[in-house]
Amino acid sequence: MHTILEKKQFSRDVFYLRVAAPEIARQRKAGQFVIIQLDIDYGERIPLTIADADPDEGWIALVVQAVGATTIKLCRKEVGDSIAAILGPLGNPTHIAKVGKVVCVGGGIGTAPLHPIAQAYKHVGNEVIIIIGGRTKELVIFEEEMRKIADELIIVTDDGSYGRKALVTEPLKEICESAAPPQEVIAIGPPIMMKFCAATTRPFGIHTVVSLNTIMIDGTGMCGGCRVTVDGKTKFVCVDGPEFDGHKVDFDNMMMRMKAFKEREDHDRHVCRIGLSNGAS
Amino acid sequence: METENINTEHHYVPREELAKEAKTYWGELKDKELKMKDRAAIPIQEMPVLEPHARARLMDEVATGYTEEQARIEAERCLNCKNRPCVQGCPVGIPIPEFISCIQKGNFKASVDTIKTTNLLPAICGRVCPQEKQCQLVCTVGKMHKSVDKAVAIGRLERFVADWERNNNKTTIPPVAPDTGKKVAIIGSGPAGLAAAADIRRAGHAVTVFEAFHKTGGVMVYGIPEFRLPKDIVAKEVENLKKMGVKFETNFLVGRTATLEQLLQEDGFDAAFIGTGAGLPKFMNVEGENLIGVFSANEYLTRANLMKAYQEDKADTPLYPAKVVAVIGGGNVAMDAARMGYRLGADKVYCIYRRTRAEMPARAEEIAHAEEEGVEFCFLQNPTRFIGDKDGKVCAVEVLNYELGEPDASGRRSPVAIPGTEHQIPVDTVIVALGNSSNPLMAKTTEGLQVTKTGNIIVDENQKTSIPKVWSGGDIVLGAATVILAMGEGRKAAASINEYLAQ
After folding, report:
1. DSSP for A139-159?
2. pLDDT score of B334 more than 60
3. What is the 3-state secondary structure (H, E, C) of B242-264?
4. Which pLDDT band, with edges at 50, 70 and 90, does A274 fall under?
5. Across the interface, which of A42, A220, A223 has its CB nearest the CB of B315?
6. Parallel, antiparallel, or unpaired for β A152-157 and A127-134?
7. Interface contact B439-A88, CB threshold 8 A
8. Is there a contact between A141 and A134 (Cβ–Cβ < 8 Å)?
């Protein structure tokens, strides 16, 4: 059992949860994720990236968007409530090296897992440019935290309600075209965003890392539910990833596979969302 | 569509009828002085099962177990041979004639206690062991009748006394030696880990079992379906280990949550046993394998078994709406997946296998059960690719016909493709059941741990690995094998660990 120590609401559907998990906090490195389960008998197992952690205080932070049966239930939990099971840290840590200039691109709640990675890149002495974006102002998160790390912070929104009215790929392209292009780009966000970030950097030959968040069950490599095609080969996101070379990922197949259970998910969301709006307001 | 449908005789006899026959027969038999030829003349007692058409839609256990009379009659078939070949045939060396002679005397409790001197999980082994390849293969009675199918039904008897004990609340917890102050970490709660945990705990050492999943039992909870091994039986066996003082840490992935080195150096474990199994599904690497609706058998069975997705009104884990299913492979996992297909609502299940029925690695009983339940076997065929529709969902399997050629290294005749015989089988779901390979996490996160090219941990004759204080056994050493072989290795490792800790 893992107690929720703090809860913040970032937007209507996006919440920040600080959760007691001493063993995971002790081990985790930037780029890793956990599998959580709200009920041991009937709950599903879902992956969430670790946004932050404190090994001394023994907590990890998760940023959750209420989109399906489990995330909606999780977002309804309050401080003092608990999460039945958390397994982690899972996946390979981000490969952090001093390369010079790094651009970190975060879209929506992808900005949360990007935070510890940007922090780690900065920590080893890179120049770090951070681009964060969201559909609209309230979906831009972690601005203050990112500002503390970034040598330059660029904020964009699809509708122009905050920062520059653009997609994240616009400033990314400008930086790639500039006199001092980056040595490395890391992009975390919706699959479509990562796909286009990779497409943006490809002509410039700039190494681009993406962090994939596919359907998962066990998260330890034993089912292959999370498999993706990378460089023509089948890889398991949970053990071979979650980070891959964005220029080699078959995003179209990945996005297609993520719709495998869409009918059931739509049904769950429809049923649950009514409950959430009643409970939250 | 070219499919070879084998019509074997369906000899389903209702449980009531078998029970009635046995009652009458036992009435005649019970007071007789039996000579060897009388024993040999007793017919083997058939296992009562649920009616095939009804059970194909039910998750209930298919084999319902012997009645008391059936067990007593079957026990009388044992000749109590002096040379006891059956004991050598058992990977954990159960004193088989002794436990059967207890049944002959009507002392079921003494019988199960006899089994438990070498096997703490008889309710499980009696159900899932391939006895026809182990204890029953070498049974003298079977040899006399020139048929392994007529050997004494040792597995069914083992199951009977284990179930009798549990159902009558007669379970006693085996004695545990006084605390030694030594601590042992068991990594993985599958059959190898549980067997090792029991033996090490009995010697008085503190034992903690680390399990990555939220439930203990390994393949016995995520893989083998409810209709073959009820999950409450696995839970009861684990409960008994807890009563012996074994501790369980679920949601703990050794290698990630803590490394093995941390357990040994920081957490004070004096020894460790790695029983992490062979859980990584193999795929075929053919076109279309990543289409929607193509699953590994592990994923398909984990969703259904461990995540209880078959209870759709309660479980959050979704099932894929599979109506026409093709299972690829011919092992027990393929049989489990195929039979699960009907239970999860499929209208049609095919099993595609590149050799013939004779070469299938699955147990004969499971193949027969699958057939009775309506699984259609497509022998001598193998997929060349999976074909998808415009939404990326699989809609057909393209297969090629094969014929059998010369025997290969395994002694089985190898399949040879017949060019130009490609044809399609329309399906909406494909389940790939081609076996599993070893989990690489321990090797990856443990410095100095030697593994083979295929990732199996290398051990000596006492199951000891290349690094000090660490033993290993089960599928992570053997490659994908059986529950009982894993338990045998767990016990061997436990004996070696106990010896090491006693020094």
Report:
1. G---HHHHHHH-SEEEEEETT
2. yes
3. HHCCCEEECCCCECCCECHHHHH
4. very low
5. A42
6. parallel
7. no
8. yes
**Which residue type sits at B105?**
K
Q: Point out the residue among A27, A217, A265 whose CB comes nearest to the CB of B257.
A: A27
Cα B196 from Cα B501, distance rounded (Å): 14
- Enter the pTM of the model: 0.93
What is the crossing angle of helices B483-502 and B191-202, to 10°? 30
Question: Is some CB atom of chain A closer than 8 A to the CB atom of B481?
Answer: no
Nearest to B386 by CA among B290, B301, B300, B298: B290
Residue-wise pLDDT for B1-16, tens only, equals: 333 344 444 579 999 9
Question: Strand B271-274 relative to strand B470-472: parallel, antiparallel, unpaired?
Answer: parallel
Residue of B nearest to A33 (CA): B256
In what side-by-side order are the strands of the sheet with B348-353?
A: B294-296, B429-432, B324-328, B348-353, B376-379
Q: Cα–Cα distance between B118 and B101 in angstroms, integer? A: 17
Residue with tokens 């049609």: B348
Question: Which of A29, A86, A218 to mutate against chain B (most B CBs within 10 Å)?
Answer: A218
Task: Write the CA distances from B19 to B15, B66, B67, B493, integer angstroms.
Answer: 6, 8, 6, 42
| pLDDT (average), residues B403-425 | 90
Question: CA torsion angle for A270, A12, A214, A258 (degrees, to 10)?
Answer: 40
Q: At a CB cut-off of 8 Å and minimum separation 6, what does A98 contact?
A: A124, A125, A126
Nearest CB partner across the interface for A253, out of B290, B314, B320: B290
- The reply to whether residue A42 touches residue B314, judged by beta carbons under 8 angstroms, is yes
B349 to chain A nearest CA, in Å? Answer: 20
Q: Is B303 on the interface with A (CB under 8 A)?
A: yes
% residues pLDDT > 90 (chain B): 88
Residues belonging to chain A? 281
Question: Binning pLDDT at 50, 70 and 90, where does residue B77 land?
Answer: very high
- DSSP codes of every residue in B11-26: ----HHHHHHHHHHHH
Alpha-carbon distance of A236 to A225, in angstroms, equals 8
B253 and A69 within 8 Å at the Cβ level: the answer is no
pLDDT digits (tens, 9 = 90+) for B20-58: 999 999 999 988 999 989 999 999 999 999 999 999 999
Min distance A54 CA to chain B CA atoms (Å): 15
Q: Tell the burial category of B386 from Cβ atoms under 10 Å away from its Cβ (0-12, 13-18, 19+).
A: buried
Phi, psi of A136 (to 5 degrees): -145, 170
With residue A134 as reference, give the H or E element that holds it.
strand A127-134
How far is residue B459 from each of residues B269, B470, B481, B482, measured CA to CA in Å? Answer: 20, 10, 16, 18
DSSP B309: T
| Mean pLDDT across B302-331 | 94
Residue B163 tokens read as 């179930």
- Tokens read off for B10: 């369906």
Give the Cα separation of B92 and B108 in Å (integer): 20
What integer is the mean pLDDT of A71-91? 96
Identify how many contiguous H helices and E strands chain B contains and give both numbers.
20, 16
Name, in order, each residue with C-beta under 8 angstroms of B196's C-beta and a sequence gap of 6 or more.
Answer: B186, B273, B275, B471, B473, B490, B491, B493, B494, B497
CA of B420, closest CA in chain A: separation in Å?
Answer: 27
Q: Where are the alpha helices (DSSP H) in B379-451?
A: 441-445
A68 to each of B240, B317, B455, how far by Cα in Å?
38, 11, 37
Report chain A's C-alpha Rg in angstroms.
18
Place of tokens 């070879």: B4
Higher pLDDT, B113 or B3: B113
Pairing of strands A33-37, A46-54: antiparallel
Chain A CB contacts of B293 below 8 Å:
260
